[in-house]
Amino acid sequence: MNDQIIRVTRALNHPIRIQILYYLNDNQKSSVNNLVKQFDVSQPAISRHLRILEEAKLVKSEQVKQERYYSLEDKHVIKILDVLRRHVNEDF
To answer: Which of 7, 41, 86, 92 could bridge across to 56 with cysteines, CB 3.0–4.6 Å?
Structure first.
């Protein structure tokens, strides 16, 4: 199996990471500190989630002075998540 598929599915295997992706989609970019406030999760935990998302090439980062900002690298992931959401919400 393709290693990138494994990285992406691993990255999507946590609710905070999915919430981060939707947040970045809605807000274009965000600092780590802002994400900590947004999700009420510790800074080390947010950084770990972002590292996993970055390794999966779903988010990218840029350093601006003392702050690191994250944004979506692959907007296709939101389409995938939306399809999954519709699928699980369908009445069978």
So the answer is: 7
Instruction: Give the chain's domains with CATH numbers.
Output: 1-88 (1.10.10.10)
Q: Which residues contact 62 (CB under 8 A, 6 or more apart)?
A: 68, 69, 71
Angle, CA 72 vertex, CA 13 and CA 61 arms, to 5°: 100
- Contacts for 74 with CB less than 8 Å, ≥ 6 apart: 57, 58
Structure pTM?
0.88
Helices assigned H by DSSP within 1-92: 3-11, 15-27, 32-39, 43-55, 76-89
CA distance 76 to 79: 5
Q: Write out pLDDT tens, residues 22-35.
A: 999 999 999 999 99
Q: Which residues contact 78 (CB under 8 A, 6 or more apart)?
A: 21, 22, 25, 72
Alpha-carbon torsion (44, 58, 55, 87), positive or negative:
positive
